[in-house]
Amino acid sequence: MSPLVSSSRKQSTACPADAFHDLLRSAVGPESHLEFLTAVIEAIPTPILVKDARHRYCAVNAAFIEFFAHSAAEVLGKGDDAFFSAEDAEFYRETDLRAMQQAEVVEYERPYLFGGQTHWMLVRKSALRLADGQQYIVLVLIDVTKRRAAEERLRESEARFRSLNELSVDWYWEQDEHFRFTFLSSNVDLASGQSAAGALGHTRWEAPGIDWAAADWEAHKATYRDHKPFRNFVYKRIGADGTPRWLDISGEPIIDETGHFRGYRGVGRDVTREQQAAEEIRHIKDLYAALSHTNRAIIHIRDRQALLEEVCRIAVDHGHFCLVWIGLLDEQTKWLKRVVVSGPASAGYPEIRVSIDPALPEGRGYSAAAVREGRPYVLNDYFADERTAPWWDVARAYGIRSLATLPLKQEGRCVGVLNVHGSEAGFFTDALVALLTEMAEDVSFALTYLARESERECAVRALKESEERFRQLASNIPEVFWIADPNHQRLVYVSPAYERVWGRKTGALLEQPSQWLDSVHHEDRTRVAEVLLRSTGETSDHEYRIQRPDGSIRWIHDRAFPVFDERGKLMLMTGIAEDITRRKEAEDRLLQLAHYDHLTGLPNRVLLHERLKQALARAARHNDHVATVFLDLDHFKTVNDTLGHATGDHLLQQVAKRITRTLRDNDTIARLGGDEFAVILSDISHLQGAEIAVEKIVSALQNPFAVDGHELYVSASAGISMFPTDGSDADSLLKNADTAMYRAKELGRTTYQFFSQEMNQRARDRLSLEGQLRRAIEREEFALHYQPKVEVHSGRITGCEALLRWHNPDVGMVSPARFIPLLEENGGIVKVGEWVLHEICRQLKQWSQAGLASCIALNLSARQFYQRDLDVVMLRIVSDTGIDPGLIELEITESMLMQNPEQAARILRNVKDAGMRLSVDDFGTGYSSLSYLKRFPLDALKIDRSFIEDITANADSRAIVQAILALARSLGLRSVAEGVENEDQLSLLAKQGCDEYQGYYFAKPMPAVELSRLLLPGVGVAA
Description:
Blueprint: H1 3-10, H2 16-28, H3 33-43, E1 48-52, E2 57-60, H4 62-68, H5 72-75, H6 86-102, E3 106-114, E4 117-129, E5 135-143, H7 145-167, E6 171-175, E7 181-184, H8 188-192, H9 196-199, E8 210-211, H10 217-225, E9 230-238, E10 244-255, E11 261-270, H11 272-300, H12 304-319, E12 323-330, E13 335-342, E14 354-355, H13 366-373, E15 377-379, H14 392-397, E16 402-410, E17 413-422, H15 430-476, E18 480-485, E19 490-494, H16 497-502, H17 506-511, H18 515-518, H19 525-534, E20 540-547, E21 553-564, E22 570-579, H20 581-595, H21 605-622, E23 625-633, H22 636-643, H23 645-662, E24 668-673, E25 676-684, H24 687-700, E26 705-707, E27 710-712, E28 716-723, H25 730-746, E29 752-754, H26 757-774, E30 782-791, E31 797-808, E32 812-814, H27 816-826, H28 828-849, E33 856-859, H29 862-865, H30 870-881, E34 888-893, H31 894-899, H32 901-913, E35 917-923, H33 930-935, E36 940-943, H34 945-948, H35 955-971, E37 974-978, H36 983-991, E38 996-998, H37 1008-1014
Helix pairs in contact: 11-12, 11-15, 22-23, 27-28, 28-30, 30-32
């Protein structure tokens, strides 16, 4: 655009016609500008036509006359219908009107036939309005015939280009100077797998899925930067579906007419098949090389693990697999254990779990199927089969797209798999699988060979180890091991133990085998010779004695075994000779221990039973009597408790000797255990004979025993049963004698009793009572009665003692004298004692809530007191019930304190620290040791009722009571008298300074309800 036109456009108020007129006037002058304008129009080579408002031709220029081939006279004053068809004339009139009405330039191209030729004309129509109001239409016609011809040729060329592209396997592409795609032919999508729309505006190396390692992209980019042509640049691209494609492109730089670089144009083609074919050929060649290397490895490597590692390495190096692993089957778990893994994807590759159990998800894959069915499986698209679904995440993470799994066999049995993975779908061809199968078969052969070699080596090693173990065993075992050749009557081998056992040299024995028999004790020699003669070819087992050169005797246990060859022919005789001298001696000792008491040397229960049966058999034959006597020492436990078990054992030994001296030679005394003895009096003609013998025993025991510096007195209670009146067998007689002995104890001890049926019934009643006693707590048959304790001077109730009562539904109230000893014997007193404490705490809580105050004392039995955790149990019960421990008083006997002073001190100190009170019950009947009174944290002494009952008539009892009361006062302890029955006893106790008493004089033991009334203020006071 010229500067003149540009400046005129900036003058918004100027009229273009005025400017043109000004130009005419300046150029030719005002008087001749019309002639000048006319000349200019005539000179324009483009046809110009002017129509009036009625569409008549009113002016034309020379170019129009020449083009239209009519003279001015022929066209002026006429319209379009004079020269064109009605349809064309109508079109021209419509465009004329549009130009006049819309005051715009109307353009169109139309063909015109003039002079036998068709001309394509570009027609431009515009309206012309004069000052006088007249309107005209000015048509300018431009010949565009040549341009239209050129455009047609271009369209034909493009059509041919498109057809060529669509028919070709190649595609055409163009790039700009920044190497970005500006054009891609339509077949690029199908031919390359790349979207043309997605590629436009991007460089080739920005396309997704390029395998950068498959081509030299840096060199290719350098070619681009240098604007050089390139031919057959081949690169690899992985499609979205994982399918690889190989693309071959060639390109030429685009240089414009000025020499400037404008981009690239070129062609491309898909060469995947050619590349895959070439790659398969390379794979096959490489796998042939891998087979060769594998076979060499099989020949040279003898270690299974090392061989499998080398096979995997060879497969990766030569087979170009992304992952190779070998899994061997665990026969117990049925899982494949990965033993080797190799390949680019193996770095950090997790341990995948594969089972051969089809019931498990991990057992439904191809590796498991390969093991189960013994045949290879190939999967060229890893993600197209649901059977591999458990491992998809791992496969995606490590670029795995295909799989071949091949079974590994050993002795024809599947023992594992060789798994090879490709990074591309479709990786495994038939030829490749065939070579892999051959490789797996070679590895299977190697596994079988190695297994056999291992078994052979193990057998050889085991044989050597066995021979070495045999030599070591034969040299070190204490038994004598020997081998003889019966076919040649010679001794082949004797172990070194022969010299230690026989005391003779092995060399001399091998030279002269007869020394073996010569060393046998003369009393056994004949028997041993017969065994040796009889046992050739047979197993023998016998014992005999030998005499060593030093004259000592040894017992030998000799066992011989024949050895046959595969045809059953006797080859050797082997044997083991064991020195059993100590065993023989031990058997003698065991026999002694089995029948005799180890402490006293007397027969034990076993031997007693045997001798009693023998005595009964003799008595039955001769119509005699046999007396069975059960003896139990009275209060023997006190000796053990006070002086210790060692002293008790020494006393038992002296008792056994003293009883033995009173018996006849044909009588038997046995110790049954503890302080129990039994005596069999044989050949008794009458009852008086048994009575005389027992009286001698009881009398002999009355004299004192001197034991460990102590003078001890022992008495015994005895029970007697007679054969045949009291029983016909040993068990019955022993049981009945035991029953009679218990009756003797009940009658005051230090006596004897003959058995009677009445005793037997009493024993059965006792057994029944004991069974019922065990269920008394569950049946809630126990109850507590309370006997008040009263202050002597004020008569005020100071507390009470809890006493256990048992109401048996079958027999009614049972005396405590009957059931308390039973509880002590069977241990039930512990459980009952806890129940008693719970019940006392419950009663105390009830009284406390009723506003009644009282302390309750309870007796602890020896069984309870010997519990190591007695204090813990008691304190827990008191704590759980929330009772003030100061309301509970524990009564313990003197003997219980002296049984285990250390334990007693600990328990008493713990309960005392918790607030409980402590008193000594039955004081004066035991040890009356002043030392324990100082040692233990006591609160009171309770004087035994045996001293109270005759205190008014017996001066000794009065003196003892007075001494006890004085002792209590001096130690700051309360004194309590038990068993006060009358006013005279109470009056005497008051004069001697007794603090408290309890007994029938004030009240008998009573239920808690009755005692509660006495605890009311002003009620429970002695008169």
